[in-house]
Amino acid sequence: MTEANLDGQQASAAEESIPMTGAQMVWEAFVREGVNTVFGHPGGAILPTYDALASYEAAGKIHHVLVRHEQCAAHMADGYARATGRVGVCICTSGPAATNLVTGLATALMDSVPVVAVTGQVPTNLLGTDAFQESDVVGVTQPVTKHNYLVTDVSELPMILKEAFYIAREGRPGPVLIDICKDVQNATGEFRYDMAIDLPGFEPWPTVDMSKIQQAADLINRAERPLILAGHGIKLAGVSRELLEMVERAEIPVVTTLLGAGDIPESHPLSLGMGGMHGEAYANRAVQGCDVLIAMGMRFDDRITGSLDRFAKQAKIIHFELDKAEVGKNVVPDLPVIGNLGETLPALLSLIEERKHPDWLTELNVWREDSGQTDIINYEVDELIPPYVIRQLWHSTKDTERGPAIIVTDVGQHQMWESQYFVHEFSGQLLTSGGLGTMGYALPAAIGAQMAYPDRLVWAVVGDGGFQMTLQELAVLKQERDLPVKIAIINNGFLGMVRQWQQLFYEKRYVGTPIVAPDFVKLADAYGIPALAVRKPEDVSGAFKQALETPGPFLIDFRVKEELNVYPMVASGAAVDQMIRRPKPTVVQGFSGVEPSW
Amino acid sequence: MKHTLIAWMRDKPGVLNRVSGMLRRRNFNIDSLQVSHSETPGISRMTFVVDGNERMVDQVISQMRKVVDVTRVEDISSKPSVVRELALIRVQTNAETRSDIVQMVNIYRGEIVDVALESMVVQIVGSEDRVDSLIELLNNFGIIEMVRTGRVAVVRGMTERKHRRSTAVWRARANGYENMDEERLTTGGV
């Protein structure tokens, strides 16, 4: 299958095949793919592969990070991949280990993150016999991977490894799992890595229809009230600079999705921040008031659209998207432009005319002012509330010597407050589980990002509920020679977002939401990590300063006001501009004017 | 509306599971599904019937194309095609009803493929309508057991039309019409 595709010239330059075991092939392929860090947990069925790792570790080619739970191996690989744009790799054994991976793989699939997972499997002669630690991993992970493989023959292994990286990386990225039988890891086969990939059914990069781009440019150039809705695709294609150029040339305001945070700097006057369920009111009004909506690299998730029947009905919708299956899935666009944004956006840019939209921008600014009246950021506060903590986090990290911080958030209220009150300056500054909404994501993903960039400042912002799901990974910080991940726990004693829904839609019956936490400072101490609890607003900036000045990891337990809701909010089923607006804060001492005091 | 889709896929272990799993998880409504070998070794061919509007069928096709082992998907509903289904039906019989059944099966151009004292097996190949209506008739005698393949289909060949066109042109030329206009050529000289 492989040689047949090589023409004569390539064949003559073909790499000599080297005999090696299946276990060695795994690491050899990783090295060829440029992998230098893997996250994993050993076990019976993957032992031969771990044994083969020894020489690669000794040679300094591959560093293995031992996780405390396999779910976190997948999250770490995910965080590593999101931070670098390269494929993240995790490895673990069969049965329970492989089923533990599922949540992490599903998270990566929903958010288009390239991950390759290798799992051990029982020997081929025991397949299907309910052997010890056997589970149908290919069956279990099929719905949560882009593709997966069961390897029962060592001669297929090199090609499968190569295909796995190719599939994970190319087109819309996603996780790929390889399940390798134990006897295959032990068997000897011929290894080479220069064979041509033959996947007739895999079309990662669709051909761009240039006439569609011309039509899109015509629509945009004629628009009076244009708006861009930018998503994760801008980051994946690496086109934020092109986007910014287009935005400035044609004066088009930008609303982003959660994963699109920082697609253009949020300090830019044309940035309206995040839209959707907890987006700013003016951003959602802009969506419902524009005449041409340019959606780029996003998939019209229900959190961004609200009620589909009433979503941007007044607007002509142009949808720039790589994955054809996302076009028309939720929102039927008037003009679909299918293709890699790396191709379509520069092509579009060359056709975009310089324009000004003063009336539209004035209108948006009036809406913005209206939102500012109730925004808590314009008030002095004497209680410790999460928005204030997040704002101070931003102040403390924006001008450090180590460059702007990478923020990794968990899921829940703190995640929404972070997206509202942190000013994201570049695409990829915020790593978060947007699609699947996986609690417990922040700490392991932050470890992954920090492993990729040991010198960057990485902050995990996490709730007290989500943190308790994966806090065992604190041990990894210690084992990885004091990995300098900084952790901010927004601790309100509740599963806050669920409590908010119970308050608003279930008449304040707080069932299952009050949550007891350990003393996080003592816990951190047990792991040998310096920590601090903060109860008053005046201590916040000092705590952040101390965290920055302390080398290695640091944990801050912010004991914030217990019952506080995230606003604005679009109730599910409502149109996106029917928001529950921010109530006038009750904790105020006085309106301090238009300039935010914090 | 019912759409007939044909998908070609690499004959790898679990490929049927991949496709059917995707259809189930995306909540697509599949009326029938049939898999077999295709003319190419290593490639299987799946014929399936989806009940839904254009947008949904478009989604099915796009999602299907994303399955790595699926090499090609086509909606043949709007193309002239030959659509068939095969059914094997075991019917209760006795001396009185046997000849009636044979007569009906003959009218439907079915075949009796097995006869026993108290039952016989009827084979019918045809469009689903035809299979349905024979089954309805045989129900009056009591159906003991039945199996249907589900819809299989191939697109009708274009050779016939080309042939007709060229004959028409040839005939026109032979009759002295040298300058036939383009429109008449494309309509086969009609």
Task: Describe this protein's structure.
The complex is a heterodimer of chains A (598) and B (190). Chain A is an alpha/beta fold. Chain A has 23 helices and 24 strands. In chain A, the strands form six sheets. In chain A, strands 3-2-4-5-7-6 form a six-stranded parallel β-sheet, sandwiched between helices. Chain A is globular, with a radius of gyration of 25 Å. In chain A, 52% of the residues are buried. Residues 1-11 and 588-596 of chain A have low confidence and may be disordered. Chain B has 190 residues and is of the alpha+beta class. Chain B is 35% helix and 35% strand. Chain B contains six helices and nine strands, in the order E-H-E-E-H-E-E-H-E-E-H-E-E-H-H. In chain B, the strands form two sheets. In chain B, strands 5, 6, 7, 8 and 9 form a five-stranded antiparallel β-sheet that branches. In chain B, a hairpin with a 3-residue loop joins strand 6 and strand 7. Chain B is elongated, with a radius of gyration of 22 Å. Classes of the chains: A alpha/beta (598), B alpha+beta (190). The A-B interface holds A 138-139, 142-143, 146-147, 150, 167, 199-203, 323-325, 327-329, 332 and B 9-10, 13-14, 17-18, 21-22, 25, 55, 58-59, 62-63, 65-72.
Morphology of chain A: globular
Question: How far do the termini of chain B sit from each other?
Answer: 33 Å
Residues in β-strands, percent of chain B: 35-45%
Order of helices and strands of chain B: EHEEHEEHEEHEEHH
Can you give keywords for this protein?
heterodimer; A: 598 residues; six-stranded parallel β-sheet; 24 strands; disordered N terminus; B: 190 residues; four-stranded antiparallel β-sheet; 6 helices; 9 strands; disordered C terminus
